[in-house]
Amino acid sequence: MTAKSFHPPVRTLMGPGPSDVSPRVLEAMARPTIGHLDPAFVGMMDDVKGMLQYAFQTKNELTMPVSAPGSAGMETCFVNLVEPGDKVIVCQNGVFGGRMKENVERCGATPIMVMDDWGKPVDPNKVEDALKTHHDAKLVAFVHAETSTGAQSDAQTLVKLAHDHDCLTIVDAVTSLGGTPLKVDEWEIDAIYSGTQKCLSCVPGISPVSFGPRAVERIKNRQSKVQSWFMDMNLVMGYWGGGAKRAYHHTAPINTLYAFHESLVMLQEEGLENAWARHAHNHQALKAGVEAMGLQFVVDEAYRLPQLNSVTIPEGVDEAAVRAELLNRYSLEIGAGLGALAGKIWRIGLMGSTSNQKNVLNCLGALDAVLSDMRAPIKSGVAVAAAKAVFAE
């Protein structure tokens, strides 16, 4: 057998991630590889750190990209802050709260679960009840933007509740960073992680994290070793710390970090508030088209993520066949439901570079055509016009 180069098809990525990657970011990856301790690379690391602080809206010194995907960012926060025997209040309203529970258990700690229906935000009253019942809890962990449902929780309120009961917080911002308002310092978030492949429109493989002063103090005063050598912040900061000479820790994913640097440059050029507004505006247009067809959203409007839209499947429609047709005929990817919502929803992403007028109109037109061909119970031929009316405002 003769090996051949792989040439992927060109797709429009409108699922739950990854999102479309800008040609600028792809070009950055093709630049010459240099050493991870090269002075030029170290200078770029400083740039990444500063721009990431801007994206997170924080001055936290311990703000850096973990050299692995978002799931590793999650694990980095948990293994550094959770010790064996700790009690951790974990909020679950979708898939990723369940992954937080797994992390707590693997750290030898006890998760205290606060459960909400999929598609609903985390209920602060339930969290407060759990905090009052478990006075010895050390942390509260929750997902700010639940990718499996498209629901956004009130991070500022949840963090304040935790602090009122002497708990630190771990926040999942994988789908919110760069897409909706996220203010780490103003909201006093203690530890937060995200991913590059959602609203930052970078290639997958990097997980931004940030630890505030309370979290750093907790890490420094641990009674036990961090269970992961690779993710131990005490060690990694010798490589990602500012000012001092960099100490070797691991070989960073050099070219992937070039890509991340470029995506952060693009975010700064657009402006964070402008990026938030763009995601919101494109969501309103998509919403108008979806509702004109007669389809509905799972999440109540007050808690709905603009960048991750969970849309109900019309009765009698084979949802997998629709996704396959969109991929084969239009080279358009949308996502399926997970867990409790599997087979009940499509997840339509409007994240990062994907979030633009052209993609909204193309997606609505393609979905309308496919569903009409399948004789689905929708209103045909009205979705695109409804979205255009929003864009014309």
Please tag this protein with its features.
393 residues; alpha/beta; Aspartate Aminotransferase, domain 2; Aspartate Aminotransferase, domain 1; seven-stranded mixed beta sheet; three-stranded antiparallel beta sheet; 14 strands; globular; transferase; PyrdxlP-dep_Trfase; pyridoxal phosphate; Aminotransferase class V
Report the oligomer: single chain
Task: Return the CATH topology of the largest domain.
Answer: Aspartate Aminotransferase, domain 2
Strand content: 5-15%
Instruction: Specify the structural class.
Output: alpha/beta
The unreliable regions are none
CATH class of the largest domain: Alpha Beta
Based on CA atoms alone, the radius of gyration comes out at 21 Å
Order of helices and strands: EHHEHEHEHEEEHEHEEHHHHEHEEEHH
Number of separate strands:
14
Mean pLDDT: 96
User: What is the name of the CATH superfamily of the largest domain?
Assistant: Type I PLP-dependent aspartate aminotransferase-like (Major domain)
Task: Count structural domains.
Answer: 2
Biggest sheet details: 7 strands, mixed
**Tally of helical segments:** 14
As a percent range, the share of helical residues equals 40-55%
Protein name: Aminotransferase class V
Modified residues (N6-(pyridoxal phosphate)lysine): 198
InterPro entries: Aminotrans_V_dom (IPR000192), Aminotrans_V_PyrdxlP_BS (IPR020578), PyrdxlP-dep_Trfase (IPR015424), PyrdxlP-dep_Trfase_major (IPR015421), PyrdxlP-dep_Trfase_small (IPR015422), SP_NH2Trfase/AEP_transaminase (IPR024169)
Family: Belongs to the class-V pyridoxal-phosphate-dependent aminotransferase family.
